[in-house]
Structure formats: structure tokens, C-alpha cells
Automatic annotation (TrEMBL):
<dbReference type="InterPro" id="IPR004399">
    <property type="entry name" value="HMP/HMP-P_kinase_dom"/>
</dbReference>
<dbReference type="InterPro" id="IPR013749">
    <property type="entry name" value="PM/HMP-P_kinase-1"/>
</dbReference>
<dbReference type="GO" id="GO:0016301">
    <property type="term" value="F:kinase activity"/>
</dbReference>
<comment type="similarity">
    <text>Belongs to the ThiD family.</text>
</comment>
<dbReference type="Pfam" id="PF08543">
    <property type="entry name" value="Phos_pyr_kin"/>
</dbReference>
<keyword id="KW-0784">Thiamine biosynthesis</keyword>
<dbReference type="InterPro" id="IPR029056">
    <property type="entry name" value="Ribokinase-like"/>
</dbReference>
<keyword id="KW-0808">Transferase</keyword>
<keyword id="KW-0418">Kinase</keyword>
<comment type="pathway">
    <text>Cofactor biosynthesis; thiamine diphosphate biosynthesis; 4-amino-2-methyl-5-diphosphomethylpyrimidine from 5-amino-1-(5-phospho-D-ribosyl)imidazole: step 2/3.</text>
</comment>
<comment type="pathway">
    <text>Cofactor biosynthesis; thiamine diphosphate biosynthesis; 4-amino-2-methyl-5-diphosphomethylpyrimidine from 5-amino-1-(5-phospho-D-ribosyl)imidazole: step 3/3.</text>
</comment>
<feature type="domain" description="Pyridoxamine kinase/Phosphomethylpyrimidine kinase">
    <location>
        <begin position="18"/>
        <end position="265"/>
    </location>
</feature>
<protein>
    <recommendedName>
        <fullName>Hydroxymethylpyrimidine/phosphomethylpyrimidine kinase</fullName>
        <ecNumber>2.7.1.49</ecNumber>
        <ecNumber>2.7.4.7</ecNumber>
    </recommendedName>
</protein>
Length: 268
């Protein structure tokens, strides 16, 4: 019998691992698998982690990050990529250098700073390096509200303040900006994300807020879902809507794993 050859777009995550399987590279690869693209991964950091928290993290030597990128560039046709936990300024610089050196397609920067459990996943002094080196390379940056506040250096409490922050981030060279949970209307209990596109059009994505602590890895999942959709040829706007729906379904149909902030359901 002849072999049947199927082809899938190849997508790359440059991020940290989560031994607990719910966030980081593990969430990225599960999301990519579920979106029917072929996931590849450059390990930038390793965490000892479960649903209760991050017990320890360790950075990869930069030579090993370089080697992993070189291996992929020599053999794969990466159609889109994303960054997640990068740890410190040295690793941010190293990843940016590799992204300048190789064409891995459109880049989504998920500027992971602090885990929901409180662990610091990016050193404070690396935030400036992300702004200087990574954002100018990015198609889209996806900070949550706290990360957006760290980028602009002030509290964001109203819709107008969130929109102004997104414009400010765009001026750093990133084409499109998505600020997650950018406005929580306590009256209607709606969570909303603000998206500002390269052509200066924008939108608020609003969804009912689901009461759950099982949201470990939502940021990673959102950004890898969008990278997967871009790799398949979707427009950014289409990718945003698909990823939002994917996250909503994953949060609404939770699974029982671990004793803390449980992981998402990638079969939903
Ligand atoms: N661990 C790693 C390696 C991550 O990349 C992330 C991503 O944000 C987290 C933990 C945090 O996950 P969460 O804050 O969704 O629990």
C-alpha cells in the first residue's frame, strides 16, 4: 500500500516548559495539535511546576537556544511563531536575535511576566528589553491588564485608559495590540479584551465572565491558537475570533486535574 502523506503548517513556540502540562510549551503544543498544525518548540526556560504553583525555574544557556533555532531553521518551514515565558533580559535578547536571523513567519509576543499563582516568570529589568527588542519584531503583542500596566508604567482602570495604552504600545513598533481582560464591567460581569489593529481599526471582544479557578495557561493557549490560525492562512481578525472562542469553550468545559489552578480542556 502506498503511504498517505498529509501536510500540516508548522508552527513554533519559543517559551518555558510547565512540568504540570497546563501552561507554557505544553499548553502551546496541545493547542497546536488541536488546531491541526504541527507544533515545534524552542525551550527557553524549564519550570518545576504543578497546578499549585511554580516550585523552581531554570534558564537554558543561550547557546542551546541558538542551537534549537538553527535546527528548526535548517529543516522546517515555520509559518508562524509565538514567544511565551522568556525569563530574563539575556534570554529575551537571545530570542530576539534568533527571530531577526531566521524567518519563522508572523510573531505573536505573549509577554508572560507573572503566573496566576504569583511566580515571577520575567525579571523586572527584562521588560525594557522586550519593549526595545521584541515588540518591533512582533505582528501582535498580547499583554493582560497587569502586563499592559507594567509596559506603560501606570494603572489602567477605564476603557479609555486601556485604549490609550494600546496606542502607546503600537508606537513602540508592534503592529497589532490585544490587551486581555482590559475592562471588567462589574455591573454586567463581562470580561472584555481590547484589540487595536495595524490599520488603526479596533474592537472590544466581550464575553461573560466564567467563575472558575481552572484558567491555568489561558494566555499561552490564546496566543498559540492565534499563531496556529495565522499559519493556516487566517487573517489576524479571524485568528482573534477563533482563539477567543477556543478559550471560552476550554474554560466552560473544565477538567479535574491537580489541586490548584487547573489546566484547560483542549478536547472541548
Ligand atoms: N508557566 C509557564 C512556563 C508559562 O509560560 C505560563 C504562562 O503564562 C505560566 C506558567 C502561567 O500560567 P497561568 O498564569 O495561566 O497560570
Amino acid at each position: 500500500m502506498e503511504e498517505q502523506i498529509n501536510s500540516f503548517p508548522q508552527v513554533l513556540t519559543l517559551a518555558g516548559t510547565d512540568s504540570g502540562g497546563g501552561a507554557g510549551i505544553m499548553a502551546d503544543l496541545k493547542t497546536m495539535q488541536s488546531r491541526r498544525v504541527f507544533g515545534t518548540a524552542v525551550v527557553v526556560a524549564v519550570t518545576a511546576q504543578n497546578t499549585i504553583g511554580v516550585q523552581r525555574s531554570m534558564m537554558m544557556p543561550t547557546e542551546m537556544i541558538d542551537e534549537q533555532c538553527a535546527s528548526l531553521a535548517a529543516d522546517f518551514e515555520i509559518k508562524a511563531c509565538k514567544t511565551g515565558m522568556l525569563g530574563d533580559a539575556v534570554r529575551v535578547h537571545c530570542v530576539a536575535e534568533n527571530l531577526r536571523k531566521y524567518d519563522f513567519g508572523p510573531l505573536i509576543v505573549d509577554p508572560v511576566m507573572i503566573a496566576k499563582g504569583g511566580a515571577q516568570l520575567l525579571a523586572d529589568d527584562a521588560i525594557q528589553t522586550v519593549k526595545d527588542e521584541l515588540l518591533p519584531l512582533a505582528t501582535l503583542v498580547t499583554p493582560n491588564l497587569v502586563e499592559a500596566e507594567r509596559f506603560v508604567g501606570r494603572k489602567l482602570q477605564t476603557k479609555a485608559e486601556v485604549q490609550a495604552a494600546a496606542h502607546e504600545l503600537q508606537q513602540l513598533g508592534v503592529q497589532n495590540v490585544m490587551i486581555k481582560g482590559g475592562h471588567l464591567d462589574l455591573a454586567t460581569n463581562e470580561a472584555a479584551d481590547y484589540v487595536l489593529f495595524a490599520d488603526h481599526t479596533d474592537l472590544w471582544l466581550s464575553s461573560p465572565r466564567i467563575k472558575t479557578k481552572r484558567t491555568h495557561g489561558t494566555g499561552d493557549t490564546l496566543s498559540s491558537c492565534m499563531a496556529a490560525e495565522l499559519a493556516k492562512g487566517a487573517t489576524l481578525k479571524e485568528a482573534v475570533y477563533t482563539a477567543k472562542a477556543y478559550i471560552q469553550a476550554a474554560i466552560a468545559n473544565t477538567i479535574q486535574v491537580g489541586h490548584g489552578h487547573g489546566p484547560l480542556n483542549h478536547w472541548a
